[in-house]
Design a protein that fits this description.
By secondary structure, the chain is of the alpha+beta class. Among the domains are: 95 residues, no CATH class; 99 residues, no CATH class. Helix 4 crosses helix 6, helix 4 packs across helix 8 and helix 6 runs antiparallel to helix 7. One of its GO terms (biological process) is positive regulation of transcription by RNA polymerase I. This is RNA helicase.
Length: 280
């Protein structure tokens, strides 16, 4: 294994500090840092689960972390591309990819419940789920992997004593939790329709696979940056830009990031001017 560079170590420490995992003398904080250390996950995902307990949507965040930990959940065979796209539409959320993934997992869980309620044998239950996956063009292997990951991390959070509750269909609450968790991965729309990642100032584009590819909301949080000939972001959710300084003041209101906060305020002011002009 290659030794990480000094810069990589510094950036990792900075990230952990911003997530509240470290004290000023770089020891694990209590309780956040100690809790994060108990979860075998990326620090962002660990913090997301802890935040979700406070936001009372840990059930949903467990699903999202599991679904983000596996390969693509949808597949599009060339010979049935139109059917696959039509099937995907039944799960789509206008709020973004996270809630779309949540819809898939919930639908799969409902399929399993119905099969079990019919007193079917375990093999028959799995066959029913496999058939459901084929009909909906869901990658069965990825879904099974996500269910396994979900079971494992659920066991971890239960051992930690975190309260697993659901926000139901209250997706504003869940989107706020996503914002509080992934505030380091926020991007604002530029006048040309591209996006600028606030933390890195990189120019990025929404990946064509995202459900938000054509809608282009004003502000997004993302979970993956894909570098090809362009910088693409995937696994997105639309958020209110004013949630960023509200839910992550330790980052957006820090003096070194005052320019970021200023950019958000200028962005909102410009949007307000546009709205005023529409009503004049």
């Amino acid at each position: 294994m290659e030794k990480p560079s000094r810069m990589a170590i510094v950036k990792s420490l900075e990230q952990l500090s911003l997530l509240g995992a470290l004290t000023d003398d770089y020891k694990l904080s209590d309780p956040v840092g100690l809790q994060m250390a108990r979860l075998p996950l990326d620090p962002l995902y660990s913090k997301a689960l802890i935040m979700a307990s406070d936001f009372k949507c840990l059930e949903e965040m467990l699903i999202i972390v599991a679904m983000l930990s596996v390969e693509s959940i949808f597949y599009f065979p060339r010979e049935k591309i139109d059917e696959a796209r039509a099937a995907r539409k039944s799960f789509l959320s206008s709020e973004g990819d996270h809630i779309t993934l949540l819809n898939v997992y919930r639908a799969a869980t409902e399929c399993l419940k119905k099969s079990k309620a019919a007193n079917r044998k375990e093999k028959t239950v799995e066959k029913s789920l496999n058939r459901w996956c084929r009909e909906n063009f869901i990658n069965n292997r990825s879904l099974k992997h996500a269910r396994d990951v979900h079971s494992q991390i659920k066991g971890h959070v239960q051992q930690m004593g975190l309260v697993i509750s659901s926000c139901g269909d209250e997706m504003v609450q869940f989107r706020r939790c996503l914002t509080a968790s992934f505030f380091l991965n926020a991007a604002l729309k530029e006048p040309d329709g591209s996006y600028r990642a606030i933390a890195s100032s990189q120019n990025v584009q929404i990946h064509p696979s995202s459900v938000l590819f054509r809608t282009k909301p004003d502000c997004i949080i993302f979970n993956e940056l894909v570098r090809t000939n362009q910088n693409y972001v995937r696994n997105l959710t639309r958020v209110d830009p004013l949630w960023l300084p509200e839910l992550a003041p330790q980052y957006y209101e820090a003096q070194k990031n005052s320019c970021m906060l200023w950019a958000i305020l200028v962005f909102m002011f410009c949007k307000l001017i546009v709205l005023v002009k529409l009503f004049i």
